[in-house]
């Protein structure tokens, strides 16, 4: 199952929120934003829709109903209904549709003293909301022991083989994420009813001696290994899976979680973790959609949130939300110096028009690239060499390129041979446009056609071909200047600025 749309009406603090993932939703849906922005409430909505399938309780209606707390007293008596307040597309919710882990996950120790029959996984007492404690590790341990005894009883494998097969998959993952692995399932009959681990030259130390972060990883991995076998066509939801974990482990963990989730399922995570965001930005980029709850107040009024585009600007905002100012963590991997105004604007903004244009064009496809204006031809050469020498000391893998227009000879048109000679005689990090300047790309027939379509204007292709016979070599600034005559208002305005004002001084 993969959700395409979710609408919440008068649910918790939301007036009317629609999450629209489009017709082809991705496997990973990441809810990002500061605390209190409504991320966990989304999972509460999924949990509420499972009410009819659960064999245990639910939160009071006051937990779900927005109307009960409305400032208009006349609206506080409105009846609440899960089906009316929570609309999920596609329809057809079953007991398998959602599997949810809350952010309150912590099992400090395991102490199983008796072997007993286990219910099927759909009968487990799962948490009924995001504020409940999620302590499923012990039941998962009991289930592992039950499987071990069952397989041993069948007699196809030795006890050692059974146990190694059960913990083998978990250890493959743990070795990639942590530096620990499961050494033993323990023995209930010997009063050792818990998991035991190996780390370095230490073997068979109990689960209770793991760190909080190690326990977090073990809990999630074992749970998903067991549950993904039974939960198919499912939306898996994990609220803040990064708890107690450092950044490097967070990143590795999300990559492994994604591998465990079947491709016909969906993984929804609520996070503001740096490590998770880095994995979503790079390794899992093509499998993820990100909903940024920091962009707006989605509680009030009728609102729709859609996945953001993976541009550099959007990533900067997301990382800034994660920890006040983390722009340094997304320092560009590539800086391209181009011609244009070299002085920054207010707040360090880019003032050079060429750089702004390039960043607009390439920001989505190349989010790790930043175009910077650095003056004219001479300044470009000087400043790029200085920047390369300095930045390489701080960032070993940064790439610096120099991009020039094809007006290399002080505004004169350079031939394609001149261009090739320049590239051959300069360092490999130099680039030269094939067309005269950036305007020659912006005025291309393909671009102008699309602009006309967006503004409902007609495009006269024959007239275009007449006026622009050579889109590669034309100097548009010189050519257009020839059409300004003394009878035009634009001529008089230029004259006023340049000559008349000077005469009055």
Compute the average pLDDT. Answer: 85
The number of distinct β-strands equals: 16
| Fraction of residues in H or I helices | 25-40%
Q: Tell me, what is the CATH class of the largest domain? A: Alpha Beta
Low-confidence stretches: none
Largest sheet: 5 strands, parallel
Portion in beta strands: 15-25%
Shape: elongated
Largest sheet, order of strands side by side? Answer: 5-9-10-3-11
Tell me the quaternary state.
single chain
Straight-line distance between termini: 75 Å
Alpha-beta content class: alpha/beta
And the CATH topology of the largest domain? Answer: Rossmann fold
Structural Rg:
31 Å
Keyword list:
single chain; 505 residues; alpha/beta; Rossmann fold; 3 domains; 5-stranded parallel beta sheet; 4-stranded mixed beta sheet; 16 strands; 16% strand; elongated
Tell me what the structure shows:
- This protein has 505 residues and is α/β, with parallel strands linked by helices.
- It has 3 domains: 5-131 and 218-322, Rossmann fold (3-Layer(aba) Sandwich), CATH 3.40.50; 333-442, no CATH class; 481-505, no CATH class.
- Helix content is 37%, strand content 16%.
- The protein is built from 17 helices and 16 strands.
- It has helices at 39-49, 61-64, 82-85, 137-154, 159-177, 212-227, 247-260, 274-281, 312-322, 353-362, 377-394, 416-424, 439-442, 445-454, 461-467, 476-481, 489-504; strands at residues 5-11, 14-20, 28-32, 86-89, 98-101, 181-184, 196-199, 202-206, 235-239, 266-271, 288-292, 302-305, 334-338, 369-373, 399-404, 430-432.
- The longest helix has 19 residues, at 159-177.
């Amino acid at each position: 199952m993969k959700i395409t749309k979710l609408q919440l009406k008068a649910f918790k603090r939301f007036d009317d929120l629609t999450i629209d993932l489009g017709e082809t939703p991705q496997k990973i849906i990441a809810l990002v934003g500061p605390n209190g922005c409504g991320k966990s409430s989304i999972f509460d909505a999924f949990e509420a829709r499972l009410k009819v399938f659960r064999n245990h309780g639910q939160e009071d209606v006051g937990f779900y109903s927005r109307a009960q707390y409305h400032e208009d007293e006349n609206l506080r008596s409105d009846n609440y209904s899960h089906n009316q307040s929570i609309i999920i597309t596609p329809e057809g919710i079953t007991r398998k549709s959602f599997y949810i882990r809350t952010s309150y996950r912590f099992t400090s120790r395991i102490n199983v003293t008796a072997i007993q029959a286990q219910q099927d996984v759909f009968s487990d007492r799962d948490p009924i909301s995001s504020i409940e404690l999620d302590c499923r590790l012990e039941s998962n341990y009991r289930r592992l022991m039950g499987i071990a005894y069952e397989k041993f009883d069948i007699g196809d494998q030795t006890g050692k083989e059974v146990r190694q097969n059960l913990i083998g998959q978990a250890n493959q993952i743990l070795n990639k994420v942590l530096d620990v692995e499961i050494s033993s399932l323990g023995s209930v009959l010997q009063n050792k009813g818990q998991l035991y681990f190996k780390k370095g030259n230490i073997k068979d130390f109990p689960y209770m001696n793991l760190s909080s972060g190690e326990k977090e990883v073990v809990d999630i991995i074992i749970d998903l290994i067991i549950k993904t076998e039974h939960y198919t066509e499912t939306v898996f939801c994990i609220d803040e899976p990064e708890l107690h974990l450092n950044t490097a482990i967070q990143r590795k963990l999300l990559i492994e979680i994604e591998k465990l989730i079947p491709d016909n399922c969906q993984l929804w995570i609520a996070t503001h973790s740096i490590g998770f965001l880095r994995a979503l930005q790079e390794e899992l980029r093509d499998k993820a959609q990100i909903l940024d709850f920091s962009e707006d107040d989605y509680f009030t009024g009728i609102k729709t949130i859609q996945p953001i585009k993976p541009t550099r600007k959007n990533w900067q905002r997301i990382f800034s939300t994660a920890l006040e100012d983390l722009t340094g963590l997304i320092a560009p991997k590539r800086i391209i110096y181009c011609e244009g105004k070299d002085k920054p604007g207010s707040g360090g903004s880019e003032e050079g028009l060429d750089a702004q244009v390039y960043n607009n064009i390439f920001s989505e496809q190349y989010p790790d690239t930043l175009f910077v204006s650095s003056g004219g031809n001479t300044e470009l050469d000087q400043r790029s060499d200085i920047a390369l020498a300095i930045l390489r000391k701080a960032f070993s893998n940064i790439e610096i390129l120099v991009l020039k227009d094809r007006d290399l000879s002080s505004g004169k048109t350079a031939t394609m041979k001149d261009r090739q000679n320049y590239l051959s005689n300069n360092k490999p990090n130099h680039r030269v446009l094939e067309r005269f300047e950036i305007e020659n790309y912006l005025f291309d027939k393909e671009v102008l056609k699309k602009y006309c379509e967006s503004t409902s204007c007609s495009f006269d292709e024959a007239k275009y071909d007449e006026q622009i016979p050579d889109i590669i070599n034309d100097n548009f600034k010189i050519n257009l200047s020839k059409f300004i005559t003394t009878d035009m208002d634009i001529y008089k305005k230029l004259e006023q600025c340049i000559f008349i004002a000077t005469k009055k001084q």
